[in-house]
UniProtKB/TrEMBL annotation:
Residues 59-145 form the Methyltransferase domain. It comes from Pseudomarimonas arenosa. One of its GO terms (biological process) is methylation. The lineage of its organism: Bacteria, Pseudomonadati, Pseudomonadota, Gammaproteobacteria, Lysobacterales. Keywords: Methyltransferase, Transferase. This is Class I SAM-dependent methyltransferase. Coiled coil: none annotated. GO terms for molecular function: methyltransferase activity.
Amino acid sequence: MRQARLSRKTDSGKCYDRAYFDRWYRGAEARERRLITERKAALAVSMAEFLLGQPVRRVLDVCCGEAGWRAPLLKLRPTLQYQGLDSSEYAVRRFGRSRDIGLARFAQLAELRFSHSVDLLICSDALHYIATAELKRGLSGFAELCHGLVFADMFCAGDGAEGDDIGFIARRPAQYRRWFADAGLRQIGPHCYATPALLPRLDGLEAPPE
């Protein structure tokens, strides 16, 4: 397929076009990246199902890129409904129909709603590239988009992250915790956050003290 000419630039000047995904998601490191994503998917699904007491049926994957999480999720739960969202016009044009990807900037999550909230909301390896104002705005919609678990992994200042450092914003962990708390989300495990709808279902030692 010809490279799509449409591709959205971020505030940092990054362009999530075909060349970007070819560089970071294919080639020699692609297999290791897939294995890491599979482990993350297993963690997120098992944690959500344990806390909800039922299989994960609906997943929203924001900042999904080419939907690298879709296959591992469907391998675990073949009947789940997957919806991806990304700001890359290239990714949506090339894979939107085949991989269920819609076009949306992160800030639009403050207003964007679907017919049903989801059991699991994923935002993987993305928040450390998003400007603060847009990040806080988008996070404000998570509690209505998801009634279960949010899985959002990111790197912070001092983590020693490797890979794409263009536009990387080195924030302190406390900043993310404060913004997640402001959005009604409470950390309950590695990169796992309970939504307000899920919190009342947790036992005393399933969530850390506030």
